[in-house]
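@channel sequence for tomorrow's demo:
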Amino acid sequence: MHRIANMEFAKLTSKVLKKFIKKKIIYQKNSGGKIYKQRNSSDGLILWNKMTKENVFNFIRAITYPYPGAFSFLKKNNKKVLIFKCTPHKCKSSYQPGFIFSKKNNLFVKCKSGCIKLLKFKGRSIYKEYIY
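C-alpha coordinates (generated this afternoon):
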Protein backbone atom coordinates (compact mmCIF):
# COMPACT_ATOMS: atom_id res chain seq x y z
CA MET A 1 0.00 0.00 0.00
CA HIS A 2 2.84 2.40 0.79
CA ARG A 3 4.42 1.82 -2.61
CA ILE A 4 1.12 2.44 -4.43
CA ALA A 5 0.30 5.50 -2.30
CA ASN A 6 3.76 6.97 -2.92
CA MET A 7 3.36 6.57 -6.70
CA GLU A 8 -0.06 8.25 -6.60
CA PHE A 9 1.28 11.02 -4.37
CA ALA A 10 3.90 11.88 -7.00
CA LYS A 11 1.21 12.11 -9.71
CA LEU A 12 -1.08 14.27 -7.54
CA THR A 13 1.75 16.58 -6.54
CA SER A 14 2.59 17.17 -10.19
CA LYS A 15 -1.06 18.02 -11.00
CA VAL A 16 -1.38 20.40 -8.05
CA LEU A 17 1.87 22.21 -8.90
CA LYS A 18 0.73 22.77 -12.49
CA LYS A 19 -2.57 24.23 -11.25
CA PHE A 20 -0.72 26.36 -8.70
CA ILE A 21 1.57 27.80 -11.38
CA LYS A 22 -1.44 28.60 -13.58
CA LYS A 23 -3.22 30.12 -10.53
CA LYS A 24 -6.14 27.72 -10.94
CA ILE A 25 -6.15 26.40 -7.39
CA ILE A 26 -9.55 26.35 -5.69
CA TYR A 27 -9.14 26.85 -1.95
CA GLN A 28 -11.48 25.01 0.40
CA LYS A 29 -12.37 25.74 3.98
CA ASN A 30 -11.11 23.20 6.51
CA SER A 31 -13.96 20.79 7.20
CA GLY A 32 -12.74 19.98 10.71
CA GLY A 33 -10.77 16.83 9.86
CA LYS A 34 -8.29 15.40 12.32
CA ILE A 35 -4.54 15.50 11.94
CA TYR A 36 -2.47 12.66 13.36
CA LYS A 37 1.26 12.85 13.90
CA GLN A 38 3.55 10.52 12.02
CA ARG A 39 4.74 7.51 13.96
CA ASN A 40 8.24 7.51 15.31
CA SER A 41 10.37 4.87 17.00
CA SER A 42 9.23 5.76 20.54
CA ASP A 43 5.61 4.84 19.66
CA GLY A 44 6.48 1.14 19.57
CA LEU A 45 6.94 0.41 23.29
CA ILE A 46 4.92 -2.66 24.35
CA LEU A 47 3.25 -2.33 27.77
CA TRP A 48 3.02 -5.99 28.80
CA ASN A 49 1.16 -5.39 32.04
CA LYS A 50 -1.53 -3.28 30.34
CA MET A 51 -2.03 -5.14 27.04
CA THR A 52 -3.83 -8.43 26.39
CA LYS A 53 -2.40 -10.97 23.95
CA GLU A 54 -4.77 -9.64 21.25
CA ASN A 55 -3.70 -6.03 21.95
CA VAL A 56 -0.02 -6.96 21.66
CA PHE A 57 -0.60 -9.02 18.51
CA ASN A 58 -2.47 -6.17 16.77
CA PHE A 59 0.01 -3.57 18.01
CA ILE A 60 2.96 -5.51 16.57
CA ARG A 61 1.14 -6.04 13.25
CA ALA A 62 0.32 -2.32 13.03
CA ILE A 63 3.87 -1.08 13.43
CA THR A 64 5.97 -3.75 11.78
CA TYR A 65 7.92 -3.06 8.59
CA PRO A 66 8.07 -0.43 7.05
CA TYR A 67 7.65 1.20 10.47
CA PRO A 68 10.37 0.90 13.13
CA GLY A 69 8.66 -2.02 14.87
CA ALA A 70 7.39 -2.83 18.34
CA PHE A 71 9.93 -3.19 21.11
CA SER A 72 10.62 -3.79 24.74
CA PHE A 73 13.69 -3.77 26.95
CA LEU A 74 15.27 -6.62 28.88
CA LYS A 75 15.02 -5.81 32.56
CA LYS A 76 18.38 -7.36 33.42
CA ASN A 77 20.56 -5.16 31.17
CA ASN A 78 18.18 -2.71 29.46
CA LYS A 79 18.93 -4.15 25.98
CA LYS A 80 16.30 -3.40 23.35
CA VAL A 81 14.37 -6.28 21.78
CA LEU A 82 12.49 -5.59 18.53
CA ILE A 83 9.47 -7.78 17.76
CA PHE A 84 8.28 -7.96 14.16
CA LYS A 85 5.94 -10.94 14.15
CA CYS A 86 4.04 -12.95 16.75
CA THR A 87 0.84 -14.88 17.23
CA PRO A 88 -1.58 -14.91 20.19
CA HIS A 89 -1.29 -18.07 22.22
CA LYS A 90 -3.31 -19.69 24.97
CA CYS A 91 -1.33 -20.19 28.11
CA LYS A 92 -2.16 -20.86 31.71
CA SER A 93 1.08 -19.37 32.89
CA SER A 94 1.42 -17.92 36.35
CA TYR A 95 4.33 -15.76 35.16
CA GLN A 96 4.25 -11.99 35.53
CA PRO A 97 3.50 -9.89 32.41
CA GLY A 98 6.67 -9.42 30.40
CA PHE A 99 8.25 -12.75 31.38
CA ILE A 100 9.83 -14.63 28.46
CA PHE A 101 9.72 -18.41 28.59
CA SER A 102 10.43 -21.34 26.33
CA LYS A 103 8.15 -24.25 25.54
CA LYS A 104 8.95 -26.93 22.92
CA ASN A 105 11.74 -24.79 21.38
CA ASN A 106 9.43 -21.76 20.99
CA LEU A 107 9.64 -18.46 22.87
CA PHE A 108 6.59 -16.92 24.51
CA VAL A 109 5.97 -13.68 26.40
CA LYS A 110 3.32 -13.36 29.09
CA CYS A 111 0.90 -10.47 28.54
CA LYS A 112 -1.71 -8.96 30.88
CA SER A 113 -3.92 -11.86 29.82
CA GLY A 114 -2.62 -14.74 27.75
CA CYS A 115 0.69 -14.95 25.93
CA ILE A 116 2.18 -14.31 22.54
CA LYS A 117 4.44 -16.68 20.65
CA LEU A 118 7.45 -14.87 19.19
CA LEU A 119 7.91 -15.62 15.48
CA LYS A 120 10.31 -12.92 14.31
CA PHE A 121 12.36 -10.73 16.61
CA LYS A 122 15.76 -9.13 16.95
CA GLY A 123 17.72 -9.08 20.17
CA ARG A 124 20.24 -11.07 22.15
CA SER A 125 19.41 -14.35 23.83
CA ILE A 126 16.23 -13.59 25.71
CA TYR A 127 15.32 -16.92 27.26
CA LYS A 128 14.07 -16.73 30.86
CA GLU A 129 14.21 -12.96 31.06
CA TYR A 130 11.83 -10.24 32.00
CA ILE A 131 11.11 -7.45 29.57
CA TYR A 132 9.24 -4.29 30.36
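heads up for whoever presents: The helical segments are 2-21, 53-62.
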